[in-house]
Write a sequence for this structure.
């Protein structure tokens, strides 16, 4: 017979000596309220059979819990109540479904004047029986996950005894060990109020508070417990200070400078400690920092080096900067110069020193500063070249192009170990302080080209080359010739080239404008010669020996009197004054070709039957020109319209008009039809 406890038990042999005649077997020694499966196999002198199929799961019946609740404690809560706390029994000891707990308590009797109990109960079973019969009890339902219960309405200044049991539907477990509690004074129910943390110095904080409310004190406050720790490391730095005086103030001493602390306080009386207040924070004042963590030197040449240092292990405040002081151990040329450099801020922890003297040992001191300077960190260093370092390169030559400088040199003595590379130092000719300009040049290089953009424009520089090996920086070469860092601009950026280009462009623009003007004038005169709105026009201008200009126009029929005269004599046409002349080719063309001639008006002549005496003064005056220029006559519509005549029963005939221009003031203007009389 084998038995397996569910759900994850292993098969265990219950019995191997069951009679071959038996057909039933009682399996005992099982746990209450536990599920099992069983199986069988038969055996004879030859051997064993296979196991039978497993039975269905079968569960044993419930039993009373096998053990009571654990870790039962009773503490005063108020002046008439106590707080009971416990741990549940183990699951394997419940022997069924747990229904809940029962708390039995009774007031203990004292002998008169003895202050001790009248009797002592030694047997827990007997105590349980007595408590069950004589004391009160309180039931706690197991459906609540809480393991805490308050017993209320107890008598003040009495001592009580308390036991506990667990129970299910079968019954109760054994009783727990009895615990005693004194009722009448209880631990404070509330924490101190209005906790304030004030910094006093770099190592002290002052803490003040108000006592818990009177209704929550549950007795006379005997003192306070002050818990304090650094905010970033509570587990490592938490401390507790007990103050037995009821005064609500304390000073915390020997604290770390410029550190945030958290402080919590609880009150206590004869019954115990009350709850802690919420942590309040405070920060101690700043103090002088510690010394820098290290001091190191690098890139040591004969005149320069880099000094660097580490942040102090104990800053004790906000680091404002550092002070670096260096001086030669012995006077140089009779002078001992002390140099002090203030480095602001905490981000830069290095300094480039450029005014050293070859082979001189210097004494360096570095301090950190918060509100004041801390202790110094000191070290000595000797300016190069280091022992075993390379010799100086030779034949340093500088050549300059439009935008670059090229340095060339020849390798010198390599020293105790092979040369690993080169550096180039530079200085402005007017300063005199060498500084490292280019580093990490390969050992195989004998030249280096640098852009003039890396130098200050217009400044003259000198250069020298330093070889490097494992021992350090060697002797520098002799300085190169001074060379200017001015970039030579190309010719097309020179001022004279730009000026020439501007003047040339101006001349070309003027020529183009002049050509356009000439072209426009020719076009206008051409329009005048061809005419707009005139069917036929022929123009010829010739200069004869008499100095006259002849202009012949073909126009519509013009019929005028052969002679303009009055009844009582002849009258010469008036001559225009020079000030009244108007010279405008544009007006001539526009009005002659358009404004006047396009109106389709024509000159008319009176009938041949009309007598000469019928020519009136108005006719004569209307025909008189203001000046002797025909073009101007034609350009003004008032003069042109004065030649109009009404038709006398016949159509006009084309005529040829000859106009003579002369500079003689006494000359007359002749306008005559073909075959007709003239003036």
């Amino acid at each position: 017979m084998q038995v397996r406890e569910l759900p994850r038990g292993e098969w265990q042999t219950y019995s191997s000596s069951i009679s071959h005649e038996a057909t039933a077997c009682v399996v005992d020694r099982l746990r209450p309220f536990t599920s099992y499966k069983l199986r069988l196999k038969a055996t004879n002198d030859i051997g064993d059979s296979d196991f039978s199929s497993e039975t269905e799961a079968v569960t044993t019946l419930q039993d009373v819990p096998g053990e009571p609740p654990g870790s039962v404690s009773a503490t005063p809560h108020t002046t008439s109540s106590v707080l009971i706390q416990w741990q549940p029994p183990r699951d394997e000891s419940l022997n069924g479904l747990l229904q809940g707990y029962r708390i039995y308590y009774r007031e203990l009797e004292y002998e008169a004047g003895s202050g001790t109990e009248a009797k002592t109960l030694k047997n827990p079973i007997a105590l349980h029986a007595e408590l069950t019969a004589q004391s009160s009890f309180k039931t706690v339902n197991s459906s609540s996950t809480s393991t805490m219960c308050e017993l209320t309405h107890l008598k003040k200044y009495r001592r009580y005894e308390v036991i506990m049991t667990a129970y299910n539907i079968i019954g109760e477990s054994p009783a727990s060990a009895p615990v005693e509690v004194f009722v009448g004074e209880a631990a404070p129910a509330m924490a101190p109020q209005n906790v304030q943390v004030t910094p006093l110095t770099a190592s002290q904080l002052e803490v003040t508070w108000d006592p818990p409310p009177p209704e929550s004190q549950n007795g006379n406050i005997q003192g306070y417990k002050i818990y304090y720790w650094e905010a970033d490391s509570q587990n490592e730095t938490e401390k507790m200070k007990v103050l037995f005086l009821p005064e609500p103030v304390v000073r915390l001493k020997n604290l770390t400078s410029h550190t945030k602390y958290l402080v919590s306080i609880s009150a206590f009386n004869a019954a115990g400690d009350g709850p802690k207040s919420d942590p309040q924070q405070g920060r101690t004042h700043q103090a002088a920092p510690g010394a820098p963590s290290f001091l190191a030197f690098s890139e040591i040449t004969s005149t320069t080096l880099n000094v660097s240092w580490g942040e102090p292990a104990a800053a004790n405040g906000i680091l404002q900067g550092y002070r670096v002081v260096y001086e030669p151990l012995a006077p140089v040329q009779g002078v001992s110069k002390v140099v002090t450099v203030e480095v602001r801020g905490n981000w830069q922890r290095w300094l480039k020193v450029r005014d050293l003297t070859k082979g001189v040992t210097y004494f360096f001191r570095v301090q950190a500063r918060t509100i004041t300077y801390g202790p110094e960190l000191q070290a000595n260093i000797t300016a190069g070249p280091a022992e075993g370092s390379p010799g100086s390169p030779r034949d340093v030559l500088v050549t300059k192009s439009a935008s670059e400088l090229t340095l060339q040199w020849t390798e010198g003595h390599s020293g105790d170990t092979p040369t690993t590379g080169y550096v180039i130092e530079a200085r402005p000719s007017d300063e005199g302080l060498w500084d490292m300009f280019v580093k990490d040049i390969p050992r195989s290089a004998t030249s280096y080209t640098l852009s003039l953009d890396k130098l200050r424009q217009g400044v003259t520089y000198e250069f020298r080359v330093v070889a490097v090996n494992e021992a350090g920086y060697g002797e520098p070469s002799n300085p190169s010739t001074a060379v200017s860092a001015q970039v030579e601009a190309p010719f097309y950026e020179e001022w004279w080239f730009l000026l020439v280009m501007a003047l040339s462009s101006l001349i070309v623009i003027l020529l183009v404008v002049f050509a356009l003007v000439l072209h426009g004038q020719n076009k206008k005169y051409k329009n005048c010669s061809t005419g707009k709105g005139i069917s036929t026009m022929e123009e010829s201008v010739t200069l004869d020996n008499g100095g006259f200009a002849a202009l012949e126009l073909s126009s519509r029929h013009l019929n005028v009197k052969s002679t303009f005269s009055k009844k009582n004599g002849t009258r010469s046409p008036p001559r225009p004054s020079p000030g009244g002349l108007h010279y405008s080719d544009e007006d001539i063309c526009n009005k002659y070709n358009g404004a006047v001639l396009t109106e389709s008006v024509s000159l008319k002549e009176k009938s041949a039957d009309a007598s000469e005496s019928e020519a009136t003064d108005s006719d004569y005056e209307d025909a008189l020109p203001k000046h002797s220029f025909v073009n101007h006559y034609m350009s003004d519509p008032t003069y042109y319209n004065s030649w109009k005549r009404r038709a006398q029963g016949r159509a006009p005939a084309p005529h040829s008009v000859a106009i003579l221009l002369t500079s003689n003031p006494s000359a007359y203007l002749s306008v005559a039809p073909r075959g007709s009389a003239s003036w």
